[in-house]
Design goal:
The complex is a heterodimer of chains A (48) and B (203). Helices cover 54% and strands 0% of the residues of chain A. Chain A has 48 residues and is mainly α. With 203 residues, chain B is an alpha/beta fold. In chain B, helix 1 crosses helix 5. Classes of the chains: A mainly alpha (48), B alpha/beta (203). Chains A and B meet through helix 2 of A and strand 4 and helix 5 of B.
Chain lengths: 48, 203
């Protein structure tokens, strides 16, 4: 599909309006670092 | 966060880095806290407050404040070889809000510093972290000339979730700053456990 981005946007929004596609928003940015790393940080801080 | 790659000839692994933000209103002690706990002389971007900031930066209640952080503070604590904790003090002035998203990216959690004389100044930071679902705690910086309140009074005034820790501190003291960071990391662990439980229930 060699279409300009603007055209694709219009197409997609039309498809959305007719209920032919669904939009899923990305998960909110709530990734947390792993527990082991956090515990290590905690121990390190306590040892300071 | 991009960090400079270490000398490739030595083949050293990229050190693990965790990031903590220090936020709060103008003049609440963010720069002092980063300075007190950092092992390096913090990178500071302080400038003298000049007449140009009159009416822009509100120093009411903190009249002795003569400098302000222009962009941010940056400090470092080495946990062990290959694991470092970075502290980023957010700029206190409203006009630097645009930097917050960049700063918050990948952060473990945040400390919102509060001054009992100007408690309302902490609301924008609290709102921001609540919206982003970034775990945070409140550190109440006990200024010498401020009235003392207990943490429950402050929690009520800030309308905080009972699970969010509120602790009193003196950010000029390294030990006190360290305690604040420990409380935050413990809170982040509790939040993670809670989210995992909720995730398990949802499935």
């Amino acid at each position: 599909m060699k279409l300009p981005l603007g055209v694709v946007r219009v197409l997609l929004s039309d498809l959305l309006e007719y209920g032919l596609i669904a939009v899923r928003r990305p998960e909110p940015d709530n990734r947390l670092p792993n527990e082991r790393l956090l515990k290590e940080v905690l121990n390190g801080l306590q040892a300071l | 966060m991009d960090s400079k790659r270490s000398d490739p000839s030595r083949g050293a692994a990229m050190p693990l880095a965790v990031k903590i933000l220090v936020a709060g209103g103008f003049g609440v002690g963010k720069t002092s806290m980063v300075g007190a706990v950092s092992e390096i002389r913090p990178l500071r971007t302080e400038e003298q407050l000049t007449d140009r900031s009159v009416g822009v930066d509100d120093t009411s209640g903190v009249e002795r404040k003569t400098t302000t952080t222009v962009a941010m503070d940056f400090g470092r604590i080495t946990i062990r070889d290959g694991l470092v904790l970075y502290l980023f003090g957010t700029p206190g002035q409203d006009r630097f809000w645009f930097m917050w998203d960049e700063l918050a990216l990948g952060a473990l959690g945040a400390v919102v510093l509060a001054d009992t004389r100007r408690l309302a100044d902490s609301f924008p930071s609290i709102d921001y972290f609540e919206r982003r679902r970034l775990p945070f705690i409140i550190g109440v910086n006990c200024f010498d000339d401020a009235l003392r309140y207990d943490t429950e009074e402050i929690r009520a005034a800030l309308d905080l979730d009972p699970k969010i820790p509120v602790i009193l501190c003196d950010v000029r003291k390294r030990e006190s700053g360290k305690q604040v960071l420990i409380t935050l990391v413990e809170h982040v662990l509790a939040v993670m456990a809670e989210r995992q439980r909720q995730g398990a229930v949802a499935r």
